[in-house]
Amino acid sequence: MKKSVFFGTLVAAGLTAGFASATTLEDVKARGVLNCGVNTGLVGFAAPDANGNWSGFDVALCKAVAAAVLGDPSKVKYVPTTGQTRFTALTSGEVDMLARNSTWTFSRDTDLKMDFAGVNYYDGQGFMVRKDSGITSAKELDGASVCIQTGTTTEMNLADYFKSNNMTYQPIAVDSNAEGEQQYLAGACDAYTTDASGLAATRAAYADPENHIILPEIISKEPLGPAVRHGDSQWGDIVRWTLFALIAAEEYGVTSANIDELAKGTENPEINRLLGVEGDLGPMTGLEKDWAVKAIKAGGNYGEIFAATIGESTPIGLARGLNAQWTQGGLMYAPPFR
Amino acid sequence: MTSASDAPDRGFRLSQLIYDTRYRSLTIQVITLIVVMGAAGWLVDNTIQNLRVLGKDFNFGFLDNRAGYDIAQYLIPYTNDDTHARAMLVGLLNTIWVSLLGCATATVIGIFVGVLRLSKNWLVARLMTVYVETFRNVPVLLWILVAMAVLTEITPAPNAYKVNPATGEASASMILDSIAFTNRYTAIPSVSFERSLGVIDTALAPVSLNVLAIVLVLAGAIWVNRRLLAHASAVQDATGARPVTWWKSLLILLGPLALLLAALGFQLHGPTLKGFNFTGGTNVSNAFVALWAGLSLYTGAFIAEIVRAGILAISKGQTEAAFALGLRPGKTMRLVILPQALRVIVPPLISQFLNLTKNSSLAIAVGYMDLRGTLGGITLNQTGRELEAILLMMLIYLAISLVISGVMNLYNHKVRLKER
User: Fold this and answer.
1) Which of A208, B91, B225, B278 is deepest in the core (most CB within 10 A)?
2) For all residues of chain B together, what is the average pLDDT?
3) CA angle A328, A334, A337 (to 5 degrees)
4) Do A58 and A143 have their domain in common?
5) pLDDT below 50 — which residues of chain A?
6) Range(s) of the domain holding residue A321
7) What is the pLDDT of residue A175?
């Protein structure tokens, strides 16, 4: 008799475990840690150092969200995901958000049941070749072997590009950026293709970056951004507006250097609302009043993060280009904080 | 103390379900069945619930959509305009192809090594022991990666075969002007015919009638040859002297084939370096060779142990009897020991074949596009149909395994001890 009661409880517990699901915000707060899906290792975007501390452009976004939600940018558990595992990791709940160079596409937003919270890097797919191959244009790649990360949008773009240009190629599928690098350096492929920013980051890690060139052709639009699960709008709002807060902070001149000063109150009502001096923007989405202050303090505003991780003064050396503020001729544009 | 059979009949009481040995096992079985079915039902229900929460449906319609990606290795024609179903088929054929070749080479390696490990030659036996112990005690994934690394690192890039205008020489040269080892693939000559008998267009792949004709002629030749050998055996049984047949066999096997090939205008096309890669021949990718070698060598080590066990299971008296009849050691092994050992060898051999087939799903590690790479990799990723793709993949692997064990069980039935 005792046994059957035990089994009954077990089954009941299993059943409730299957259905019980709080909102992501509650889950994260209860856990005290943000699970953030990142790249398995792409210098500049997300890579661990010798001590296992993650840093990079995408990592900075994880930190900003953790700071906004939990008040501490270090309370992030980084979950490395490959091109193949990333979306399953998100939809299955293994990670709370994905900040992993993922392209915002229609089918991913709808059919894969994810929500993209914005764009943190406007990118496009490019090719890298060895300089001594003498190739100067992607149009000369007819018949080439091309290394490509499997499970990415680049795979489809590549097929479309070669088809529309009446060229043939041999795809060499690789599972991660590291494997792609190794195959490319070993000469198993003539060209390596992925997002141009990823190519720049990959090349920066080589011993001889000057011997490799990135071809001028950009064959696709790759708006990269953080993604969350479909159906939890509150959590989507938090990630989206944390990103916007970083972008707006750059626009208004709020930096990690002057934020303590500005958080005491300024003449500019926009900054006051952003930093929670005025109004109740934070509580509207379930956060503290000073959420944006914490988010910006985590790694600086969007421009500071860019400059520190992938900007022109870093080995990766990416120019702002499309990713400049709209006031500077770029596409970075945050809606009003009001 | 009364036994269960002569218990007085006092009607059925519920407690008998547990305390009566006549019912106890039935009770336990029924409870177990209910628990197992309950667990399965809960899993299915949980899946349906979670799919509903995610707003996903369960259908296989995605298989009819355009795949849109390219596959490097294919046995049937495929372009990125074909459907996901076709891409799955391409992957499935790649899986079957590498498994078939792997099973064949693993068996050859296994028998060879297994026999040699029992050799009286100290060095040969020890060498085989070293082979078996190293290969079966390191994970097969590592062997596949090692094979791939070796192939990639020791071979030159295709452009090394290009003649350098400054020196007038290429840094690598092709073997016999027809085979080139590169760090991507091995370029070998391909076969073509000047005259074609026509092509049958099946839904799966176009089948050349030339190939069909060659297969038919070969099959016919083999059948005629078997008749010839049977006749020779009959003559031997009747007269005690076996007629010389080797030149007749050779003529029967090769003659018609040579005539047919000449009539069809058989040609070999050597690969030539054009642009980045070799074209004109057949490029056997390193990924395939690495996977094939890794799987064969690994499984071969296990099969060697099975063969050794099988041989040791045959009593020493059989060998001594064969020697007493004047058979040499080689013939003793081939005619007396191995046929009997097969009865012991075949059942565990089946599971090794199954293992090899399932291990072939490690192909993704070297970029060989098998079923796991197409259906379970790119298709799954691009369509987001994890559940459908994985279920389908499991079903297909299950079907392949059942077919292999079915065929091997037939063979086992044939070689097992006949009890009359």
Assistant:
1) B91
2) 87
3) 130
4) no
5) 1-20
6) 23-122+224-328
7) 78
